[in-house]
């Protein structure tokens, strides 16, 4: 989800709710302790230099169980970060500590924001010797067009 998308959704909500992909909700007394821009400048294992940018939201649970973040407040935090930090309309990455700090992509299911598990991947599989996955074809689905195959005495072999 891009920053512009959450800015469109927030005014339509009464409450801000985050849910993990497994269905567990982030406790409703969470705080958004950071909104920022993260730039990752790196080289992959194939030698390609890459740049990635994301808008970072950090969620945190405190002992103030009566705290509730309202949509207007989060929208104001986002607008302030755009003004003061020059944050652009990039994809949102959410940091949230469950058993360890996790990084999540963000989606909206019509009611709650869903923290989608991120995974690692090799960006240069050909350089690592990882074979490209072969296309699986059922032999029964191969063309049975006689013009597309050789026949005895056709001269194609």
TrEMBL record:
<dbReference type="InterPro" id="IPR045534">
    <property type="entry name" value="DUF6428"/>
</dbReference>
<dbReference type="Pfam" id="PF20001">
    <property type="entry name" value="DUF6428"/>
</dbReference>
<protein>
    <submittedName>
        <fullName>DUF6428 family protein</fullName>
    </submittedName>
</protein>
